[in-house]
Amino acid sequence: MISAAHYYIPKVIMLLMGGNEEKFGYASKSFLEVYEVDIREVNAFINVYQGTSSITSILSYTAFSIFFITSNISLLVLILLRYLIIQILYKNKDKMSEKVRSLHQQLIKALTVQLVIPSVVCLIPSFLTLILSLFGISYGSWLSDVAAVLYSVFSFLDPLSIIVFVPAFRRKVKKIFSKPESYLQPNVIVVKPA
Q1: What is the pLDDT of residues 157-183, one digit of tens each?
Q2: 169 and 121, same domain (yes or no)
Q3: Pair (57, 106) in one structural domain
Q4: 54 and 135: one domain?
Q5: Domain annotation covers residue 18
Q6: For 62-103, what is each residue's pLDDT tens digit?
Q7: Are residues 96 and 183 in the same domain?
Q8: What string of DSSP letters covers 26-48?
Q9: Which of 72, 23, 31, 14 is nearest to 49 (CA)?
Q10: Do 133 and 184 share a structural domain?
Q11: pLDDT in tens, 119-162
Q12: Is residue 86 part of a domain?
């Protein structure tokens, strides 16, 4: 069921937000002025809430609603799963050694960061642009530009967070980027890797 939802919900949203001549006509002039490209020549998903036919507005509101609901459900599921993992680990803490408990705490920190990063970097800019558009508030192109940069930064921040929060990975990265220490012994040069 989750796999089907993961596959079909984005397809439905893309179908609802897909371009038609009415949407292209509505957005083409401003898109051409800002980006100097005809909107028909790029992949574009367009939501138009006002100034178009009622069917186009209904499709846009439906796409927004599905996106908003599914994004929030997935975020809530992630928070719930994190909570359940913490509860299971807490119940079994007496059966674990100090080392295993330490590893589990690192796991929880890493999972928390991996929950927060996509929420901040991907969902907030998406919701902000959609909600401002929904209420007809003009935000210029800066918010879309910031959102595009944040989407790109996500692929860098996610592994970086794991390196920061998992000491074994952190030590390995430090070892790779540090200079080896060398010292002299009589008639022998020993190079000690970092």
Answers
A1: 888 888 888 888 889 999 888 876 655
A2: yes
A3: no
A4: no
A5: yes
A6: 888 888 888 788 888 888 988 898 898 889 888 888 888 888
A7: yes
A8: HHHHHHHHHHSS-GGGS--B---
A9: 23
A10: yes
A11: 888 788 878 887 887 787 887 778 878 888 888 888 888 888 88
A12: no
Contact 175, 167 (CB under 8 A): no
**32/97 same-domain check:** no
pTM over 0.85: no
What SS3 state is found at 108? helix
Structure tokens at 81: 């799963």
| Distance in Å from the first CA to the final CA of the chain | 49
pLDDT of residue 183: 55
User: Are 122 and 176 within one domain?
Assistant: yes
Same domain? For 99 and 17 the reply is: no
Crossing angle of helices 167-177 and 142-165, in 10° steps, is 100
57 is a domain residue? yes
Task: Enumerate long-range contacts of 62-69, CB under 8 Å, 24 or more apart.
Answer: 62/16, 63/13, 63/16, 63/17, 64/130, 64/134, 66/9, 66/12, 66/13, 66/16, 67/13, 67/126, 67/130, 68/127, 68/130
Instruction: Residue 52: give the domain boundaries.
Output: 1-72
Pair 96, 162: CB distance under 8 Å = no
Q: Residue 58 has which token pair? A: 């209904």
Q: What are phi and psi of 182, to 5 degrees?
A: -125, 145
